[in-house]
UniProtKB/TrEMBL annotation:
Alphabetized InterPro entries for the sequence: CDC50/LEM3_fam
Protein name as it appears in the record: ALA-interacting subunit
Organism encoding this protein: Miscanthus lutarioriparius
Alphabetized UniProt keyword annotations: Membrane, Transmembrane, Transmembrane helix
Coiled-coil residue windows: none
Length: 422
């Protein structure tokens, strides 16, 4: 009998050990309220009064912001001059590439600009390039940040192909295609007999100057090859002070972009004539690019851009329109059992259709508002938030809009949720 009991005990221990081994080998995650989405959560009930109030408040806030943004953008004065075609000699308009590649032909060009409105200092001088893809993957990766920061790492030229070393194997500092293609057109401005000096100090980001480009890193072997891509650098000036390079190295996301060339600290009056003596050195003809010189003022909102103002006006106006539409619908059909929107949400009861219709419109407006301020992560979160709303309904604990089983139902999202099922 004792022997039998002992055998049973050993067998139980063996089963427990096997169960423990099985538990250790399982792929099931450890249970917690956080991972299984069982923490307390606020799930507001979107009543008609609440929805109308939110739409109206958002509209009242957004419309004035849009108007103020548009007025600020309209106060910006810009002078834009495309000169890449105008500076080509008349006898070489059919072969622009030969013109830009021939070093014996003078690239100096004179342009006269007329000031259309009074321009208060500082006046920002930009160069604008079109059809130049600085966001190309190979181009963006063709640099070595460690080499730019630390003089002891001058030999680190990995990822800088094809501009990493000279023909005799000496490292190029700064290496890579971005630095090699540095913009090299120059501009000088005069108003009558008065020289308008361009201040090129602090045109780059302070964080770039202090943290990305070393004070002890000097150019070496730069643009020494047979094929020169752009401007040369003074080997006696550290990279942290060569701000034209720092500005150029912050690559643009779009093929049409502007980069700051400098600032003019002179007030320009309406109808003033500005003479620009420029050197048309940069080759954009080989890839069909365009070059423009831009003189611009700035406001508290920045440069000239109407998109932000129109975006706020459109969203604000739409919110006010929906607020009045829902108010009218609420007074015409105060009881949702009398009728509901014509949209059928998966055969739901009429009492729930108005809620679902309102929820979807709120989702669209909420996402649009978030996109204006570029909170894309929050926009994604809002999608999940609205689809997983579970308002109180008598005797029904399931999401009433019919999306819960796919997007909002925690039993669907969570694997083997309850401890008892494990």
């Amino acid at each position: 009998m004792n022997s039998h009991a002992a055998g049973t005990s050993n067998g139980g221990s063996g089963d427990a050990a096997a169960g423990g081994a099985a538990r250790r080998n399982t792929r099931m995650p450890k249970y917690s309220k956080f991972t299984q989405q069982e923490l307390p959560a606020c799930k507001p009930i979107l009543t008609p009064k609440w929805v109308v109030s939110v739409f109206f408040i958002v509209g009242v806030i957004f419309v004035p912001i849009g108007v103020v943004s548009l007025l600020a953008a309209r106060d910006v004065v810009e002078i834009i001059d495309r000169y890449d075609e105008a500076c080509v000699p008349s006898n070489m308009t059919e072969n622009k590439l030969a013109y830009i590649q021939n070093e014996t032909i003078s690239k100096e060009c004179i342009r006269n600009l007329t000031v259309t409105k009074d321009m208060k200092q500082p006046i920002f001088v930009y160069y604008e390039l079109d059809n130049f893809y600085q966001n190309h993957r190979r181009y963006v990766k063709s640099r070595n940040d460690a080499q730019l920061r630390d003089a002891s790492k001058a030999n680190q030229t990995s990822a800088c192909e094809p501009e990493k070393t000279t023909a005799n194997g000496q490292p190029i500092v700064p290496c890579g295609l971005i630095a090699w293609s540095l913009f090299n057109d120059t501009y000088n401005f005069t108003r009558g007999n008065e020289n308008l000096t361009v201040d090129k100090k602090d045109i780059s980001w302070k964080s770039d100057r202090e943290h990305k480009f070393g004070k002890d890193v000097y150019p070496s072997n730069f643009q020494n090859g047979a094929l020169k891509g752009g401007a040369t650098l003074n080997p006696k000036i550290p990279l942290s002070e060569q701000e034209d390079l720092i500005v150029w190295m912050r690559t643009a996301a779009l093929p049409t972009f502007r980069k700051l060339y400098g600032r003019i600290y002179f007030d320009l009056k309406e109808n003033d004539t500005i003479t620009v003596r420029l050197n048309n050195n940069y080759n954009t003809y080989s890839f069909g690019g365009k070059k423009r010189l831009v003189l611009s003022t700035a406001t508290w909102l920045g440069g000239k851009n109407d998109f932000l103002g129109f975006a706020y006006l459109i969203v604000g106006g739409l919110c006010i329109f929906l607020a009045f539409a829902f108010t009218l619908l609420y007074f015409v059909k105060p009881s949702t059992s009398i009728g509901a929107p014509s949209i059928n949400f998966g055969g739901l009861e009429p009492d729930n259709q108005l809620f679902c219709f309102t929820t979807l419109l709120t989702l669209v407006l909420h996402t649009a508002i978030l996109l204006i301020v570029d909170f894309s992560v929050l926009a994604k979160a809002s999608v999940y938030h609205y689809f997983s709303l579970t308002p109180y309904t008598s005797g029904n604990a399931n999401p009433i809009c019919g999306f819960g089983r796919k997007l909002g139902d925690h039993n669907y999202l969570s694997w083997n949720r309850h401890p008892a099922g494990r």
